[in-house]
TrEMBL record, chain A:
Protein name, as recorded: Unannotated protein
CDD domains noted in UniProt: ABC_PstB_phosphate_transporter
Residues of the ABC transporter domain: 5-248
GO MF annotations in UniProt: ATP binding; ATP hydrolysis activity; phosphate transmembrane transporter activity
Gene Ontology, cellular component aspect: membrane
UniProt-listed Pfam families: ABC_tran
Entry keyword Nucleotide-binding: yes
GO biological process: phosphate ion transmembrane transport
NCBIfam families documented for this protein: 3a0107s01c2
InterPro entries membership: AAA+_ATPase, ABC_transporter-like_ATP-bd, ABC_transporter-like_CS, P-loop_NTPase, PstB-like
Keywords noted in UniProt: ATP-binding, Nucleotide-binding, Transport
Automatic annotation (TrEMBL), chain B:
Membrane topology: Multi-pass membrane protein
PROSITE patterns with a match to the protein in the record: ABC_TM1
Compartments, record wording: Cell membrane
Entry's transmembrane regions: 20-41, 61-91, 103-130, 157-177, 230-251, 271-293
Entry-linked InterPro entries: MetI-like, MetI-like_sf, Phosphate_PstC, Phosphate_Transport_Permease
Primary location recorded for the protein, binned into one broad class: membrane
Keywords: Cell membrane, Membrane, Phosphate transport, Transmembrane, Transmembrane helix, Transport
Domain (ABC transmembrane type-1): residue spans on this chain: 66-293
Protein name according to UniProt: Unannotated protein
Keyword Cell membrane on entry: yes
GO biological process assignments: phosphate ion transport
């Protein structure tokens, strides 16, 4: 399962501060959509509105429309907890639970929904999720070791395994490789391409090569100045953004002539 | 290639601070040794003397007090630990910011009340206040050995002592645990949230496991204070040398510390040594509990999140 995400006239506020202004875009299922742009342009804020994680910050709210498969995820009747169970997220720094084993980490999301689970089901699910995250072969003999015993790249794949174990429909990745070495980065990128077979993948990245290597669609955001809201400048197929952008600002940014 | 060791440049600041640090480290050992030697040396006569201070032997003398000490402290810890965790969670994760600050200050204020005041309050206010509930407990749950009758007429019972001690150790425990909860890495809380955890589930998945070692440490600190508390116990309880699990009667075992405080002024000779020997027992018990706590914490240090 995979979802079509539609944002229309979406504004994101922190208190009275407008952080992201008037976003209109459609994110297609079974694709990778990359958000690129300079620091502070609101791309991380925007990706967090897709699973209502920005609400964790007091005073944050959105105006406008955000639907997933036609359903408004900000309708008052929708529980943000339910949204987050459908939309998995991977963070900038790997964050496995340090007090849990590798296996417990993978199952942690699933256990939130279903406490009762036979040992064989749990083992099968852990194996499936770890295989899905290309981590199984590296950890199958030490599932009872702490998650923090893994390398950074392995920890990040463990976090991906944890996210996909609950079978979400969308996977959000907020700069998932910015703390990783090139080899681990390549592993995550390969994995992202595999994940789009099953999920809608949205990735925030500062690495433009990464965006051009793996994404189908790219959205370029920028801000005119500090204190002003971030805006979506151009949203198009990735090859167009990088080889034939329509906007001057996009061209400047992707060719490294920004600022 | 030179075979000489590199010349280390001596900087005066480094030297001063390293010596200060070493000095402080050594001082703690010296103080500990001095106290231990004092306890040992002064208690020896109690065992060697011809004239017997404790007719039935030392252990028969100290056993009820040891029992009373441990019982009162366990009651205190059982009451204070869940309360402290609750207070700490409320302040760190639920209360609006302003309220949580005010609450933080009032907890510090609670910690600043001298123990003799707690003792007076326990004796004059809390004991009579609690007595009706003791009667109720005895009527309805008297079949449980803890709530056996006859219920004390004054309310100055082991249970009251436990509650007073709980209130005394609560502030330091709550303040420490709150500090620990506030240090839960944001990343771990977000990881839980992003998996679709509710607020309570975030606390269960990220906050409590992360704080476990700290909770145990602060409980041990609280326990240490409860074990050694003298004034509050001495004021509330008129204890004797009995061993009983009945918490609501007027016959209660005294604690080691309170017994020393009450008996010491009128003691002499081997009886003084006997009292000091009971102090040695208290010292040993407290140390054993602290070591046990360290061991519990280190057993799962791999999973502590410190790495």
């Amino acid at each position: 399962m995979s979802m079509r995400i539609e944002l229309s006239s979406l504004n994101v506020y922190y208190g009275s501060f407008l952080a992201v202004e008037d976003i209109n875009m459609v994110i297609e299922p079974n694709s990778i959509t990359a958000f690129i742009g300079p620091s502070g342009c609101g791309k991380s804020t925007l990706i967090r509105t897709l699973n209502r994680m920005h609400e964790v910050i007091p005073g944050a709210y959105v105006k406008g429309n955000l639907t997933m498969n036609g359903e408004d995820i900000y309708s008052p009747s929708v529980d943000p907890v339910k949204v987050r169970r459908q939309v998995g997220m991977v963070f900038q720094r790997p964050n496995p639970f340090p007090t849990m084993t590798i296996k417990e980490n993978v199952l942690s999301g699933y256990r939130l929904n279903n406490n009762k689970m036979s040992k064989s089901d749990a083992d099968a699910l852990a194996e499936k999720a770890l295989k899905g995250a290309n981590l199984w072969n590296e950890v199958k003999d030490r599932l009872d070791r702490p998650g923090s015993s893994l390398s950074g790249g392995q920890q990040q794949r463990l976090c991906i395994a944890r996210a996909i174990a609950v079978e979400p429909e969308v996977i959000l990745m907020d700069e998932p490789t910015s703390a990783l070495d090139p080899i681990s980065t390549a592993a995550i990128e390969d994995l992202a391409i595999e994940l789009k077979e099953k999920f809608t993948v949205v990735i925030v990245t500062h690495n433009m090569q990464q965006a051009s290597r793996i994404s189908d669609m790219t959205a370029f955001f920028t801000i005119a100045d500090t204190g002003l809201p971030g805006k979506l400048i151009e949203y198009d197929r990735t090859d167009n953004i990088f080889s034939n952008p329509k906007e001057k600002q996009t061209e400047d940014y992707v060719s490294g002539r920004f600022g | 290639m030179s075979s000489q060791a590199p010349v280390v440049k001596r900087r005066i600041g480094d030297l001063v601070f390293s010596n200060l640090a070493i000095g402080s480290g050594v001082a703690i050992l010296v103080i500990l040794a001095a106290v231990a030697i004092f306890l040992f040396a002064e208690s020896v006569p109690a065992f060697l003397s011809e004239q017997d201070a404790a007719p039935d032997g030392f252990f028969a003398y100290v056993a009820p007090f040891l029992f009373g000490t441990v019982l009162a402290s366990i009651i205190a810890l059982l009451i204070a630990t869940p309360l402290a965790i609750g207070i700490a969670l409320y302040i760190s994760h639920f209360a609006p910011r302003r309220l949580s600050q005010a609450l933080g200050y009032s907890i510090d204020l609670l910690a600043a009340i001298p123990s003799v005041v707690y003792g007076l309050w326990g004796m004059l206010v809390l004991a009579p206040f609690l007595n009706p509930s003791y009667l109720w407990l005895n009527e309805n749950f008297g079949w449980i050995p803890f709530f056996e009758g006859p219920v004390s007429a004054t309310g100055r019972t082991m249970m009251t002592v436990g509650i007073v001690l709980a209130i005394m150790i609560l502030p330091i425990m709550a303040a420490l645990i709150r500090e620990i909860f506030l240090q839960t890495p944001r990343l771990h809380e977000e990881a839980a949230l992003a998996l679709g955890a509710t607020r309570w589930e975030v606390i269960k998945m990220a906050v409590l496991p992360f704080g476990k070692a700290g909770i145990i440490s602060s409980a041990m600190l609280g326990l240490g204070r409860a074990l050694g508390e003298t004034m509050a116990v001495a004021l509330v309880l008129s204890g004797s040398g009995v061993i009983t699990f009945a918490l609501l009667t007027s016959t209660n075992p005294n604690t080691i510390a309170a017994n020393i405080a009450l008996q010491f002024p009128e003691s002499s000779g081997t009886y003084t040594s006997l009292l000091i020997a009971t102090g040695l027992v208290l010292f040993a018990i407290t140390m054993a509990i602290n070591m046990l706590a360290r061991w519990v914490i280190s057993r799962r240090s791999e999973f502590s999140g410190a790495n």
